[in-house]
Design goal:
By secondary structure, the chain is an alpha+beta fold. Helices cover 32% and strands 15% of the residues.
Length: 150
């Protein structure tokens, strides 16, 4: 089953309502919810501007990129939140570098909005990845075995 289908199926089983998001590493600072976007093109969250949608192709892309990197991908969230620049501190091998470069037309040297927490927590909630604490380079995800061939 495709990553997007897994997420959509689980959202539908939850009644298509707002779902509280949890971070397995540490509690989120305030309640964070996600739901299907009105046009069903992805997921919305109360923590991002209304104009921001976490698009389905981005979820698929993260899993494919992580798999191409051996099943592991760094999040880059603390770098992005502290003003790190694409190509300098944030690389395409990190979720917060990969998404803006591959899907949003960002350029090297740009600052970005950190969203890796939302992507990784939703993927973990769906059972696709596992989030791991930093071992010196920041927190990261590993793709669960059943999704390694995507």
């Amino acid at each position: 089953m495709a990553v997007v289908d897994v997420i959509k199926d689980k959202i539908e089983r939850c009644g298509l309502s707002r779902i509280e998001l949890h971070n397995s590493l540490r509690p989120l600072k305030s309640p964070t919810y996600f739901w299907l976007s009105p046009d069903r093109s992805g997921i919305k969250t109360n923590k991002l501007p209304e104009s921001q949608t976490l698009k389905w192709e981005m979820f698929e892309g993260i899993v494919k990129k992580a798999n191409s990197l051996g099943g592991t991908m760094y999040r880059g969230d603390s770098i992005a939140r502290s003003g790190g620049k694409l190509g300098e501190d944030l690389t395409e091998e990190m979720i917060d570098g990969f998404i803006p470069l591959q899907y949003e037309g960002a350029s090297y040297g740009d600052s970005v909005l950190s969203r890796s927490t939302y992507f990784s927590c939703i993927l973990e909630w769906a059972g696709v990845v596992t989030i791991h604490k930093s071992t010196g380079r920041g927190s990261y995800i590993t793709v669960n075995k059943e999704y390694r061939n995507i």
